[in-house]
Amino acid sequence: MPVEAQRSSPDLAALTARLAQSDEAAFRQFYDLYFPRLFRYLLVLTGGNEDAAKDALQLTLLRVVRHVRVFDSEAAFWSWLAMLARSALVDEARKRRRYLRFLDGFFQRLQPAPVAADHDAETRLLASLGTHLDALPPEDRDLIERKYFDGESVREIADAVHSTEKSVESRLVRIRRRLKELVLAQLHDETDLPY
Questions:
Q1: Concatenated DSSP letters for 97-120?
Q2: Domain at 119-192, CATH from 3.10.50.40, 1.10.10.10, 1.20.120.450, 3.40.50.1240
Q3: pLDDT digits (tens, 9 = 90+) for 152-175
Q4: Model confidence pTM above 0.70
Q5: Is 29 exposed, middle or buried (0-12, 13-18, 19+ CB in 10 A)?
Q6: How far apart are CA 85 and CA 77, in angstroms?
Q7: By C-alpha distance, which of 14, 48, 52, 49 is closest to 33?
Q8: Where are the alpha helices (DSSP H) in the chain?
Q9: What mean pLDDT is predicted for residues 17-33?
Q10: Which range (49-58, 122-131, 177-186) has the least confidence?
Q11: SS3 label, residue 164
């Protein structure tokens, strides 16, 4: 049995009765005895997420103040506190998800309506990009494919090609710049053609 539980057992009924009567000194005593234990419990439940544990702990303490009743048994009291903590954690997670969905919806409404893309221009752009990608030296094409098609990180690519991250990033910048120049030049030449 934890030390704080051993200290609170003999007068638990008196403590919880005083809490039920909104005794401020009883709440301070309860806080000193149970706050660290509840916080550790919530940290375990959240996988170490201190912010989530603190939010849930605050809600747990509010629920204790509002709904406390007299307990004679430490085991029953801790079970009740643990149940309040778990439900507070679930409620805080729901609130956080609702808030994020609200923000997402809010910012989506602020976005201007998308302008219909010129399908022919997009097709020409993709065709030009594909042509120039195919014409790249194999080692350059491999870097581009690893980064943008396979989703590998620069570190993973550097390890695979036995190079440094800085070197890989520099090569990617040069390749992207070259591709951009080639695609823009081709598209510019196509627009200069008489129809």
A1: HHHHHHHHHHHHHHSPPPPPP-HH
A2: 1.10.10.10
A3: 888 988 888 888 989 988 998 898
A4: no
A5: middle
A6: 12
A7: 14
A8: 3-8, 12-20, 24-45, 50-67, 74-110, 119-135, 138-144, 154-160, 165-192
A9: 90
A10: 122-131
A11: coil
The candidate with the shortest Cα–Cα distance to 9, out of 34, 28, 27, is 34
- Nearest C-alpha neighbor of 136 from the set 99, 176, 184: 176
> What does the mean pLDDT of the chain come to?
82
Predicted pLDDT of residue 101: 79
The model's pLDDT over 133-159, given as tens digits with 9 standing for 90+, comes to 778 888 888 888 888 778 888 898 888
119-135 and 165-192 are packed helices; what angle lies between their axes, rounded to 10 degrees? 130
Q: Provide the token pair at 6.
A: 């051993």
Q: Which fold has domain 3-110?
A: Rna Polymerase Sigma Factor; Chain: A (1.10.1740)
Q: How confident is the model at residue 58 (pLDDT cuts 50, 70, 90)?
A: very high
Cα distances (Å, whole numbers) of residue 153 to 146, 156, 160: 8, 5, 11
Alpha-carbon torsion (151, 156, 162, 165), positive or negative:
positive
Closest Cα to residue 86, out of 143, 49, 117, 42?
42
